[in-house]
Write a structure and sequence with these properties.
single chain, about 575 residues, mainly alpha, Growth Hormone, Chain: A, 3 domains
Length: about 575
């Protein structure tokens, strides 16, 4: 019996609900089947995002600013829906069912997108010489929106579940499997980069030179094969039971503190309610004291059941639960000051692609697709991470004795690089507009190499390499242990809000600088606008945001608990900050 138990994973079950047998479940084979879905999701989502603006302008005949907003709203919604997917996975469905269901949703969206780009009735007629182009009507745009937001819904559900379900296949209590889990996360980020690289090269080329409907159809087929492979591993997976959504816990603490807002918190924190085992408790901190009232015991806080009573979680919360909510609140200033980076990122897949479409893109007889220029963006991410791992980290370790940059330092580097990226974009766009003015703004292809756009792609791409890894590390390591899934969702909402802020900013600039017969900064045809001034505005906003980030980073400190016997076990001279 003891031998049988040694082969089981304590906190996981198999597909029958029995304790998972270590020799028959989990490990690399199931993890690879899960990664197959992720690479197809990246292929589909990024294949749409990096080249959609050219379809909206060239085929659907929409204005430049409207096309950019459609792309950024699509991406923003996809990342925002990660919160919905995470809530469903944590509370009702579990990660396996969530991944399977939302994969089917994305397959449906990609199939509908392939149909909408194939049927002539679902797009306006081609432009005729000397006649104004006819824009897509409400029905045509309605079908396109339905397809895009089905894909966004599928992406949101998948991104919230796939990485977590992949890590579930390894036992973090086993030294060998813990090492395999770390390797899995490294390969997971590589898979995302490879999927994006294929999307911006092969898939974009098929869209531009073969057929968009075929490209999107291939994504549907690839995703369908991936879901079949995923389902084939059902008997091999390890499943972990849902423990409820952390969002509910946060709402309970807030609700209980509001109900007791007139109560006086005791001077002795030992009088506050605590019910967890000593080893898992988080000790009281002197910040956001208004939330402490949720732990004040009052009449009617306990619900009688049989021979015992339990606290009503909407009226009484433990100190540990309150402190977990405080930890989340302390993350919010850093969270808010990283949003602007993803606004600059959004320009790389919208206006920068549109810039590329007006420039000389030929290498002998080969015409580079405008959307494929984002390959330099992806390459910058991969190269930056490699240089950091192989050169910067060893040098930093030698000079300072520290293993590498902290997560806050990584984020700061990313913000600086993106600011320089926007400045470079403004300079190059000013040059492009001067060339357009000299040869005629109606010129389709300007005598100017598209490779001049490379600096902005490289700088913002390198910025993403630092800020993505820094954000992910910060939100996971500085959040409560029971809220890792939610903190990852909190990180992904910075991407979402960055895209939405881009849409809002474009709309405001369009309204303020345009109208009254003026083209404005963001003209319907890019050669007639002042995109350089828009990039300059983003440079200034990025610089102001960086200063605000420095203030928030200086304010942020992991709260050191009051010393107790539990803390003494950590060791003399050690602080909680050192252990986080």
């Amino acid at each position: 019996m003891e031998e049988k138990l040694s082969w089981s994973v304590s906190d996981a079950v198999d597909y029958k609900g029995l304790p998972a047998d270590r020799s028959k479940t989990g490990g690399w084979v199931p993890a690879v089947l899960i990664l197959g879905i992720e690479i197809c999701e990246r292929l589909s989502t990024m294949g749409i995002a990096v080249n959609l603006v050219t379809y909206l302008i060239g085929t659907m005949h929409l204005p430049s600013s409207s096309s950019a907003n459609i792309v950024t709203n699509f991406m923003g919604t996809a990342f925002l829906l990660c919160l919905l997917g995470g809530f469903l996975a944590d509370t009702f469905l579990g990660r396996y069912r969530t991944a399977a269901i939302f994969t089917l949703v994305q397959i449906l969206g990609m199939a509908l997108l392939a149909i909408s780009t194939k049927l002539p009735k679902l797009r306006p007629p081609p432009c005729q010489p000397a006649l104004p182009c006819k824009q897509a009507d409400g029905f045509q745009m309605g079908i396109l929106y339905l397809a895009l937001y089905l894909v966004a819904l599928g992406t949101g559900g998948l991104k919230s579940s796939v990485s977590g379900f992949g890590s579930d296949q390894f036992d973090d209590k086993d030294e060998k499997e813990r090492t395999q889990m770390a390797y899995f996360f490294n390969r997971f980020f590589l898979i995302i980069s490879v999927g994006t690289l294929v999307a911006v090269t092969v898939l974009v080329y098929v869209q531009d030179h073969v057929s968009r409907s075929i490209a999107y159809g291939l994504c549907s087929v690839a995703m369908f094969i991936a879901i079949l492979m995923f389902l084939s591993g059902t008997k091999r997976y390890r499943y972990k039971k849902s423990k409820g959504s952390p969002m509910v816990q946060i709402m309970q603490v807030v609700a209980a503190s509001i109900k007791k807002r007139r109560f006086e918190a005791p001077n002795d924190v030992g009088c506050l309610y605590e019910d967890g085992p000593e080893g898992s408790r988080i000790h009281h901190t002197d910040q956001f004291l208004c939330l402490d009232k949720a732990a004040v015991v009052a009449e009617g806080d306990f619900v009688q059941g049989g021979h015992s009573s339990a606290p009503n979680p909407w009226k009484l919360c433990s100190v540990t639960r309150v402190e977990e909510v405080k930890m989340v609140i302390r993350l919010l200033p850093i969270w808010a000051t990283t949003i602007i980076f993803w606004t600059t990122y959004a320009q790389m897949i919208t206006f920068s692609v549109e810039q590329a479409s007006t420039m000389e893109r030929s290498i002998r007889s080969f015409q580079i697709p405008a959307g494929s220029l984002t390959v330099f963006f992806v390459m910058a991410i991969i190269v930056s991470l490699a240089v950091y791992d192989q050169f910067i980290m060893p040098l930093w370790r030698k000079l300072t004795g520290k293993p590498g940059f902290s997560s806050l330092q990584m984020i700061a580097i990313g913000l600086v690089l993106s600011t320089f990226g926007m400045a470079a974009a403004a300079i190059i766009e000013r040059k492009r507009l001067s060339v357009a003015a000299s040869v005629g703004r109606a010129t389709t292809t300007l005598p100017m190499s598209v490779f001049l756009l490379i600096p902005q792609f490289l700088l913002v791409g390198s910025g993403e390499a630092f800020i993505y890894t820094g954000q992910l590390d910060f939100f996971i390591t500085q959040s409560p242990k029971g809220m890792k899934t939610m903190s990852t969702g909190l990180f992904l909402t910075t991407l979402s809000l960055g895209f939405f802020f881009s849409s809002l900013l474009v709309s405001i600039v369009k309204k303020v600088t345009g109208g009254g017969g003026r083209q404005g900064w963001l003209a319907d045809r890019i050669n007639y606008g002042r995109l350089d001034w828009f990039y300059g505005l983003l440079t200034i906003l990025s610089l102001v945001n960086f200063v605000m980030y420095l203030v928030c980073a200086a304010w942020y400190r992991p709260q050191s608990p009051k010393p107790t016997l539990q803390m003494e076990k950590i060791g003399k001279g050690s602080s909680m900050e050192d252990k986080v």
